[in-house]
Amino acid sequence: MADDPNTSEQTAPQDGPLADDIDARDIEIMQLKDQATALKDRLLRTAADMDNLRKRTEREKAEAVLYAATNFARDLLSVADNMQRAVATITPEAREKADAVTKNLLAGVEMTERELLNVFQRYNIRKVETVGAKFDPNFHQALFEVPTKDHPPGTVVREMQSGFAIGERCLRPAMVGVAKAEG
């Protein structure tokens, strides 16, 4: 059967224009597959970049909204301080002896102070925790040390001026006295 001309034609590689067309098509198909893979990879990377950009933009927008009022809020802190000082100047004994006009004036100042603090809360501005808290240099400014056995060293034991934070940022550090070991 080796001499059969039909058999030798079937097993022999085809030469000529038809074989060249098949090889060229295979090469073109492989190139197109490689190109499709590369384009798909580029598309996925671009989609991931766009998603990251969207998330970063949303985060920056939220921070801009949160911290936009920082300078204005910092300026209002002196108003809050003055309200607090005004209320603190009247002792409970003097309050009881005060006439009706003075009592109404004090009540008005206290209500105004509470309203100011409520507005601060609406804009995520809060008082910094001080007395009894561990000293945090990001939110507290130590003015003096207090030798004591009642509190562990590094604990805030006295507040001289309230501190405020907006979001996670310090607007103004609290002025505090910090416990130190007695000795």
Overview in brief:
The chain has 183 residues and is an alpha+beta fold.
What would you note in describing this structure?
The protein is α+β, with helices and mostly antiparallel strands. Helices cover 58% and strands 18% of the residues. Strand 4 and strand 5 form a beta hairpin. Helix 3 packs antiparallel against helix 5. It is elongated and about 115 Å long. The chain starts with a helix and ends with a strand.
Please outline the helices and strands.
Blueprint: H1 5-11, H2 17-67, H3 70-88, H4 92-97, H5 100-122, E1 125-127, E2 140-148, E3 156-161, E4 164-166, E5 169-172, E6 174-181
Parallel strand pairs: 2-6
Antiparallel strand pairs: 1-4, 3-6, 4-5
The chain-level structural class is: alpha+beta
Question: How much strand?
Answer: 15-25%
Give the beta-strand count: 6
Radius of gyration (CA) equals 38 Å
Q: State the helicity in percent bands.
A: 55-70%
Poorly predicted runs of 5 or more residues? 5-12
Strand order of the largest sheet: 1-4-5
Largest sheet: 3 strands, antiparallel
What distance separates the N and C termini?
114 Å
Q: What count of helical segments does DSSP give? A: 5
List keywords for this structure.
5 helices; 183 residues; elongated; 58% helix
